[in-house]
Amino acid sequence: MITNLAKLSLDNGGQISPLIIPGDLTDGTGLCNVSIFIDDNDDIIVNIRHVHYTLYHSEFDQKYWCGWGCLAYLNPEDDVNLTTGNYLCKLDPKTLYVKDYKQVNTEKHDIKPNWDFIGLEDARVIRWDKKLYISGVRRDIIDNGEGRMELSEIDWDDNHCNEINRERILPPEYTYLEKNWMPILDMPYHYIKWTMPLEIVKVNLDTKRTESVPMGTVDVVDSETILKKEFVIPGARHQRGGSQCIPFQGGRIAILHECNFFLNENEAKDAHYYHRFIFWDKEWNVTKITEPFKFMDAQVEFNCGLAQRGDDLLITFGYQDNAAYVLKMPISLLDKLEYDNIN
Amino acid sequence: MGEKEIQPLLEQYINDTLNPETNFWLAWEYDKIGQNAAALSYYLRCAELSDDEDLVYECLLKTWLMMNRTGRRPWYEHKQLLTAIAQNPHRPEAYFFLSKIHSEKGEWKDCYYYASTGLKLCDPNPKPLRTDVDYPGDFSLLFQKAYSSWFIGQREQCKRLWVQVSNYPDLHGEWKVNTHKNLKNFGIDINSKKVTDKIDIVLQGQYSEYALETAKYYLNLDFVNNVIISCWMGDNLPSIPNNNIIFTQNLLPKTNGTGNRNYQIISSLGGLKLVNTEFAVKMRNDQRYDLNSMENMFDFFHKNKERLTTFEGDETKPKNRILVGGVFEGFPFHPRDHVFWGNTEDLIDVFDMPLDPRGIEDVVKMKREEYWKYYDCYIRTESYIGSHYCSKFDNRIKKYLLKPDQYLYDNAPYYNEALELSDDLSKKVFKSFPKEGIDLEWDKYNWKNYPYNSQYDKFNERWHEDGY
Predict the structure, then answer these.
(1) CB-side exposure of A151: number of CA atoms within 13 Å?
(2) Contact between A23 and B34 using a beta-carbon 8 Å cutoff
C-alpha cells in the first residue's frame, strides 16, 4: 500500500505546500480538511476548516498518552463544544501558499447552537450558476446532533466574505446524519451521496422554504435521488465521500475516504484513515479505483478537495486534524498507482 | 507566514516520515510561528518514535507548551507536565512550570512542593534542550521556592532564598524586578556595585555550624567584603545571621567523582559566580586560617599576583596568577586545593571544567583510605583540577586529559613528559603561599595547626620557601 502519496508525488515532479492561517487568529488550534477549487478566472481558491481544538493522537506504540488517553480532542476545558470556522483563501499559483484569506462571516444565518458540534464542517468549494458556494455538514440545529448537508452562498471580495444564503438540504429519505456528499462540479446542485453503491441526488432550490427549529428558523430545500447504480468492491471497507467530483479525461474523478476503526490493546477507540481515487465514465460506470493510500503516513488524514490544473491534480487534505496541506500531483502519476480489480 | 521556512523541513519529513529528527524540526518550525496544533502533532510523533530520553522529554514538554500557548486547557497542561517529569525526573523545566501553575492560583503548598522537589532531584547542569521552551533560567526553581516559602510559613527561609535568587547571574527582567522588590520589603540591601578594594571569600562544602562560625570570623578582617557559604540543596541553613554572609545551595551531581572532586568543583564554582569583588578566595569550609595568616596571605597575594603566562590563543587571560596553599612536587599540575586566591574571573576559569564522569566507587567499592593504592588508575583530585586549568595554557595538556592513563595516572608511560611540562608551566600558573606566618586548623582531622613538616616529608608538599 502507498503510505506516502506526497513522497511519490515529490519524486515525480510534484509539490507540497503547507496552508497556514496566522496563529494569532486561531490560538494555534487545528487547521485541516481543506477544499480546493479553480475559479473561472483561474484563481486557486481553498476553504480551510479551522477546528477550535487540537487533536492529541499518539501513534505507533502509543507510549505517551495525554490525561484523556491516546486520542483526545483538546477543546477548551471551559467549553465542551467542538466548534468549526472556515477561512476562504486564495493561493499563490506558483508556491501554492495562502496569499489572501478571509474568515467566512456566517452571522446572518446563525442561530443559537443546539448541539456541541458547532459550525459548517468539511465544506467543499464549488461554483454553480456563477455563484460561489461552500457545502458541508451542520449538526448544531437539532438537539440530537442530526446532521444535514448545507449549501452556503458566499459573497467574497477584498473587503468581506459573507455567507449571504444558507440552505439546509433535506435528504430524499430521513436519516440521522448526512455528510461528506461530494458536489459534482459540472452538474449544478448535484451531489454524489454514496459511491458504493452509487447514489446521486439533486437539490431542488425551487422547494426552498423556512422551517422552525428549536432555536429559530432555517431555510431548507428538498433533494431527490436521480441515479442509483450498483457498485461493490469485494472486501472493501465502507466508502465515504471526500473531494468534489470533477470532470476528468472525458469522465469524472473524485477521492474517497475509508476508515479502519479499531480498538487498541487498551480497548480504546482508534482509527486509520485511507483514501482512494475513483474514476467514472460519462454514464457513471466506475472505470477504475485505486487501492487505499495515505498522503503523509499519518493515521488520521482527511481529503476534501480535488482540482485539475494543467497537467497536475491539486489535492488538499488535513493532517491529524491539526495541519493543512495542498499536494500537486502530476496526472501522469495516476498510472503508477495500484488499482483494485473491479471486475 | 512561515511557509518558506517550513517547506524544506516538510519535504525532509515526507522523505523520512519515521525519523524522529525530521518530525522534531518540522514541529519546531510550526512552533516558531504559533501553529501550535501542527507542532504538537509532529512533536508527539517524535516522542513516540525516538529512543533519545532527552529528546522525548523535550517533545513531551512541547506538547504541554503548545497547549499552554493556546490556553484554556489547564487540566491537560497539568497532566502533560507530569508526563514530562515521569519521562525525566531530573530536569528542572517541568517542575518549574507546574510550580508556576500553582503559584498563579495561589496554591502555595503545591507550588512549594514542585519547586523544592525539583531543586532536590534535578541535575545541576542539565544538558541544554535543543529549542526554547520558555524556561526563564537557572534561577527559576529557586525563585518559585522563595516566592511560595513566604506563604507556607517558611519566613526566614524565604528571606535567605531571595538573597540567593538575587545573586543568580542570569536573573533578568520582571524576575529581577520582583526579587529586588521583595528584598527591599524585607529591608535587605543588595549592593550590586562591584567592590574593588575588598575580597569575597567562598567557603565551599556541606553546611555546618563550623562553616558559619568561620564566615563570621573572617568578617573581622577589614579587607573582607562578603563570605559566601556555598553548600548543598537540602542542607539545613539558619536564618540570615549577617547581611555579609550569603548562602547559596547547589544541586548535588549524579556522581561525586573520585575523592568528591565533583562536589568541590560544583560548590566552588557556584559560590564564585556570586562573588562581587575583583579578587576572591575559595576555601574549604571545614578549615579555618587564623586572622593573622589571612592578612599575611592577603599581602602576599598582592605582591605575587602578576601573571607570568597567558592562555593559549587568548592573551587577555588570565588576569593574574593563582595563589595556592602549597604544591606537590613530583606530581604533574598538582596544587594544594585548600585555598585558591586570585582574580575572580581566573578562579571561575579554574573551576569551570567538566565533572569527573564517574568516581572510583562507581566502578569498584572500596574504603576512602584505600584510594591511594590505586593512583595508577585515576587522576589525583588536585591534579584533575590543576590539569584542566593548565590545559587552557597549553593544548598538549588537553591530550593528557584525553589519555590520562598514558600521561597523568601514576606510573603512566608518558608521565615524565607531563611532569616536565608541569614543572615548567605550573609555577607560572600557580604560586604557593609561604608556610611561614600562615597556619590553619582543620576541624575534620581535629588539627589545631597545619603539619608542615610531615606534609613535606611524607607527601612532598612544597611552599614558597621551597621555590614554588
Answers:
(1) 26
(2) yes
Helices (H), B88-153: 93-104, 108-121, 140-151
Closest CA to A154 of A209, A100, A222, A89: A89
Closest chain B residue to the Cα of A100, Cα to Cα: B1
Which residues are bridge partners to A66 per DSSP?
Answer: A69
- Out of B34, B56, B78, the one facing A28 most closely (by C-beta) is B34
Q: Are strands A190-195 and A182-183 parallel, antiparallel or unpaired?
A: antiparallel
User: Most A CBs within 10 Å: which of B4, B7, B14, as the mutation test of the A interface?
Assistant: B14
Q: How far is B8 from chain A (nearest CA, A)?
A: 10
Residue type, A36: I
Q: Which residues pair with B144 in a beta bridge?
A: none
Q: Which residues of chain A make contact with B1, given a CB cutoff of 8 A? A: 20-22, 97-98
Per-residue pLDDT of chain B (468 residues; tens, 9 = 90+): 899 999 999 999 999 999 999 999 999 999 999 999 999 999 999 999 999 999 999 999 999 999 999 999 999 999 999 999 999 999 999 999 999 999 999 999 999 999 999 998 998 778 899 999 999 999 999 999 999 999 999 988 898 889 889 878 789 999 999 999 999 998 877 665 567 789 999 999 999 999 999 999 999 999 999 999 999 988 888 876 577 898 888 888 889 999 999 999 999 999 998 898 999 999 999 999 999 999 999 999 999 999 999 999 999 999 999 999 999 999 999 999 999 999 999 999 999 999 999 999 999 999 888 999 999 999 999 999 999 999 999 999 999 999 999 999 999 999 999 999 999 999 999 999 999 999 999 988 899 999 999 999 999 999 999 999
**Is A277:A253 a contact under the CB 8 Å cutoff?**
yes
Residue B248 in contact with residue B230, Cβ under 8 Å?
A: yes
Contacts of A322 in chain B (CB under 8 A): 37-38, 40-41
Q: Does the distance separating the beta carbons of B37 and A10 come in below 8 Å?
A: no
Q: Please provide the distance, in angstroms rounded to a whole number, between the alpha carbons at the two ends of chain A.
A: 20
Question: What are φ and ψ of residue B331, in 5° steps?
Answer: -125, 135
Q: CA of A325 to nearest chain B CA: how many angstroms apart?
A: 10
